[in-house]
């Protein structure tokens, strides 16, 4: 049956202070690989934690950041990263922030895409960026191979940060709408599952079971309470060094800054009605009404649309 499916094809490379998408050209897939994709600050680390804890049956000492590398991050270089990933003997969990057409897509791997309202993304991104230290800037800007301009510290005013992100589509990181649109377009493929941050917040256990079914992970019910506990936000923040890259060494305040608040709506006190109307109009224009509605509300928006209420 799969031969009749039009699978995504890589059509471009993305390079920046963060990206080297060429690593996917040399990555050797296994049939049971799991790829977790997001734009960034959309619940990536949370999803990595959930998948890893279900896969390994609940282990408080699981080094999730090591188990689940960000493949297209350009540091360390692919000459180091690829052999390390190839040497992994467990079922692999790969992280990416690329749009679909900038990576190599395998019909046999399983893909989970996690999305979050762009306003919540920006507020989380600002915390991530504002707390980054000199080691973070050195790794991204000074390591050989950077293409394009360096990344600079953020402005002191988050409203200016928001304005630049909107006006320059994801500045200073990477385009937002294109990333989301590319994954939404392939949501019906049998090996793709889309997940919304709001749904993880409102029904984490239910979403975890849905993800386990999709990945074919058999849940040990005796271990389930611990598996769930290790995925709750408070536990992850208290044990953040296990799931944050390099134990949080790139952020002032350490790993607990990387796993910040895990809440939505922090922008409501800053953005005006006109700001929100502009964002919502942009989302509808860039994504289409159904995807824009899902991005704003989660699966409940689509359920309402299906029932006609």
TrEMBL record:
One of its GO terms (molecular function) is sulfotransferase activity. InterPro entries: P-loop_NTPase, Sulfotransferase_dom. SUPFAM superfamilies: P-loop containing nucleoside triphosphate hydrolases. It holds the Pfam family Sulfotransfer_1. Keywords: Transferase. Residues 31-282 form the Sulfotransferase domain. PANTHER family: SULFOTRANSFERASE SULT. Belongs to the sulfotransferase 1 family. This is Sulfotransferase.
